[in-house]
Design a protein that fits this description.
alpha/beta, two-stranded antiparallel sheet
Length: 203
């Protein structure tokens, strides 16, 4: 996959996410933000320190136009039409073929946020607020739920009882236990929630 960018500092994290997915990323900007210097060693990243030129999108699959100059973003959108490239233009849904949401990751939980025609700053604000509300303990909570679900599958044959037991764990005080006593306390709490029911099922 190839993604060609007219780059801006606010998209540094998205660049990192694309690189982590083994995308081939080309950043095109006369003045790439300082954060890109940390990524220069990535084998699938090419930084082109000049303005966008005709034909830059010829071999691309996707393009993200996030320049501070709307004229540059419009130029990117027009090149996308010329070369049949899908383009997302920051804060301009009418020029975009797709949108790039903000994300909140907590273990196996991923929330994607988009604020329609409003400025992307709002999406970042909501993302940060959710990130604070859903603290890092949610990652441990999700991991404990995954272990509980696997245990229920292994020990309980009845599908209705499986659902009942899993709901019991989800709606229990497990998250509060993790917040108070740390992730090491999670399995003991799950044992207390599931132990008797699983034993009855086996009996």
């Amino acid at each position: 996959m190839s993604s060609w960018w007219s780059a801006a500092a606010t998209w540094l994290r998205t660049t990192q996410a694309l690189l982590a997915c083994d995308a081939e990323v080309h950043v095109i900007s006369p003045r790439p933000c300082a954060g890109f210097a940390r990524l220069r060693g990535a084998p699938n990243l090419t930084i082109i320190s000049r303005p966008l030129e005709g034909g830059d999108l010829e071999d691309a699959l996707l393009a993200l136009a996030v320049d501070d100059d709307p004229a540059v973003n419009l130029q990117t959108a027009r090149q996308g039409l010329e070369w049949n490239v899908l383009v997302s233009v920051a804060d301009e849904l009418t020029l975009s073929d797709f949108v790039v949401p903000s994300f909140v990751h907590r273990g196996g939980l991923t929330l994607a946020l988009h604020t329609s025609s409003l400025d992307s700053a709002l999406a970042r604000r909501v993302s940060e607020d959710l990130g604070q509300a859903l603290g890092p303990e949610y990652g441990d909570f999700i991991a404990a739920l995954e272990r509980a679900r696997e245990r229920i599958r292994r020990e309980v044959a009845d599908p209705d009882l499986r659902r009942t037991l899993f709901d019991r764990v989800v709606w229990s005080d497990l998250l509060d236990v993790i917040r108070r006593d740390g992730p090491a306390a999670a399995d003991a709490r799950v044992d207390a929630l599931l132990g008797n029911a699983a034993a009855r099922q086996r009996g």
